[in-house]
Amino acid sequence: QEARFLHELASWRGQGDKQGELSTLMSLAELHLDEHKKEDALREAEEVQKLACDMRDREREAEAIRLKINVYLLDENSNQAEQMAKEETERLLKEAPGAGAARAVLFLAEADVLTRKGCPREAHKLSEEALELAKKHGSKRGQAVAAEAVAANNLALGHSTRALKAAREALSLYQELGDKRKRAAMLRIIATAHTRAGQGKEAMDSAYEAHDLCLEVGDRKGEVASLNAVA
Question: Residues 155, 186: one domain?
């Protein structure tokens, strides 16, 4: 999967396609974050932030900041991550007070910190606020990312029905965006929620669909996680 992203990145750069470069760099950074390759993820997130800043894409800039915050959270450095979230939110509101889409993403970053600090209810509240903002001001991807966070937080709180609703919303958006890796992640949440609700067949169907998508994109870690969702 890494090789595919690197090939795509070289292709976009060769064509001078900044939007394609930005999207692929972000996907690569997210992959490295999932694999706990912290230095790679941080370097790529910083590249995304600089490129997004040059393109005046506030939403993508905020996504890069959120990813950097999550790199710090891998090191259990929640205080540094929390400080960055606050500082970046204040900076962005000062520079672009009307940037609702970016604010939504930074709300999610703050929710990530709260989750790591053991405050799931507070994280859930922020993620729902982020989703409302994203629906008003965000891109389709921004809405999908926020719905994904709402689904994950509902699942963590044991709200399976609400998790299913939000995960299906995110799944539909990621399908429109053509993001198979994210679709698989949403199907894993759906499978887990069905499992907890005692709906075995629905859980297995979602898990196998997620597994097949992971096979298509070469996501080995996702393949295992998809089967574990119904273990």
Answer: no
Q: What is the pLDDT of residues 52-75, one digit of tens each?
A: 999 999 999 999 999 999 998 988
On whether both 92 and 166 belong to a single domain, the answer is yes
Nearest to 141 by CA among 19, 2, 33: 19
Q: Is residue 62 part of a domain?
A: no
Examine residue 150 and state whether it is found in any structural domain, yes or no. yes
Residues 227 and 219 sit within 8 Å (Cβ to Cβ): no
| Structural domain includes residue 8 | yes
The domain tally of the chain equals 3
Which DSSP state fits 157? T
Could you read off the pLDDT of 116-169 as tens digits, one per residue?
A: 999 999 999 999 999 999 999 989 999 999 999 999 999 999 999 999 999 999
Whether residue 165 sits in one domain with residue 127 = yes
pLDDT at residue number 66: 94
Look up tokens 């709260």; give the residue.
Answer: 114
Side-chain half-sphere exposure of 127, counting CA atoms within 13 A: 26
Domain encompassing residue 26: 1-55
Q: Write the CB contacts of 52 (distance below 8 Å, at least 6 apart in sequence).
A: 22, 58, 60, 61, 63, 64
pTM of the model: 0.91
Residue 63 lies in a domain: no
Tell me which DSSP letter residue 158 carries. Answer: T
| 80 and 27 inside one domain | no
Contact 44, 29 (CB under 8 A): yes
* Residues ≥6 apart with Cβ < 8 Å to 21: 9, 12, 13, 51
User: What is the Cα 75 distance to its own chain's centre?
Assistant: 19
